């Protein structure tokens, strides 16, 4: 059982055996380092006593907030206890004959597919191509009975499929597009492309730094939305998560500040990381970076001694233990990680020669 579960382990493992969060600097989970906005903190504080009531089963206020922020018709919305809930909900309801997964990718896609009793096929992308998706090749390997699940941008590789690629793929199979990190990018969402063949899911926990509350939504074809809303727990989004979501979505300034931070800090972090000896960095598009080092296990051990967590990618299909994923955090935190990496014996001298 332990080996089976290890296949689906995630980052953010900051808890000890007693369930207490340790004093870790956590680069293994891709959460907005700007933290909770004042809007969210105020909403949680002001509404704390409201937990004595059941949450609104229709989440009407939250649906209106999503409509205002993302221009999504409420009839197409499915509200979620975190984006991961959607893969289980969708696959259990639709039961495709096979789920096709371009890998490496988020492990919950596979876990949800197997939980629904679906066959799983991996479509392996290549490091030599920066894990780009060969849509022509993938189209040739799928059927109309298949469901393809694609991250946009993809976790952990950072590859960002174009809307055209998604549309071409939907001509030959159903496609679920995971846009959980789209708000960290300048790319346009494909929410307006939703059809009988295309569904889109988005997390709100990462961009608004509320993973402990669990919140997301999906945009799907209207008939499917009715079906999925009848299939889920009526109270799947709790009272505080609804209030936090409404406050967060009203805060356009927070989203602008997040993108401004990332535009600067991602460039700085990638340049410094690329300059470390033996490191191969893959082009990022969101708030995380995939990189490779032959002595990754040693790096992880050395960093843990410094109370720093990185994400080992050893349990991602299509990757091995030489791959690591790091969140992009604040300048001070990024410098602390980079300094700890340079001091590790695995780097044999730290930075590459400038000659």
Secondary-structure map with pairings?
Blueprint: H1 2-6, E1 25-26, H2 38-47, H3 60-70, E2 77-80, H4 84-94, E3 98-103, H5 107-115, E4 119-124, H6 135-139, E5 146-151, H7 163-170, E6 174-178, E7 198-203, E8 216-219, H8 222-231, H9 239-249, H10 252-274, E9 280-281, E10 288-292, H11 296-305, E11 308-309, E12 311-312, E13 323-327, H12 331-343
Parallel strand pairs: 1-11, 3-4, 3-5, 5-6, 6-7
Antiparallel strand pairs: 2-8, 7-8, 9-10, 10-13, 12-13
Structure in a nutshell:
The chain has 355 residues and is of the alpha/beta class. Helices cover 35% and strands 15% of the residues. The protein is globular.
What do you see in this structure?
By secondary structure, this protein is an alpha/beta fold. It has two domains: 124 residues, Aspartate Aminotransferase, domain 1, CATH 3.90.1150; 198 residues, 3-Layer(aba) Sandwich (Aspartate Aminotransferase, domain 2), CATH 3.40.640.10. It has twelve helices and 13 strands. The strands form three sheets. The protein has a seven-stranded mixed β-sheet, with helices on both faces. Strand 9 and strand 10 form a beta hairpin. Helix 2 runs antiparallel to helix 9, helix 4 runs parallel beside helix 5 and helix 10 runs parallel beside helix 12. The termini are far apart.
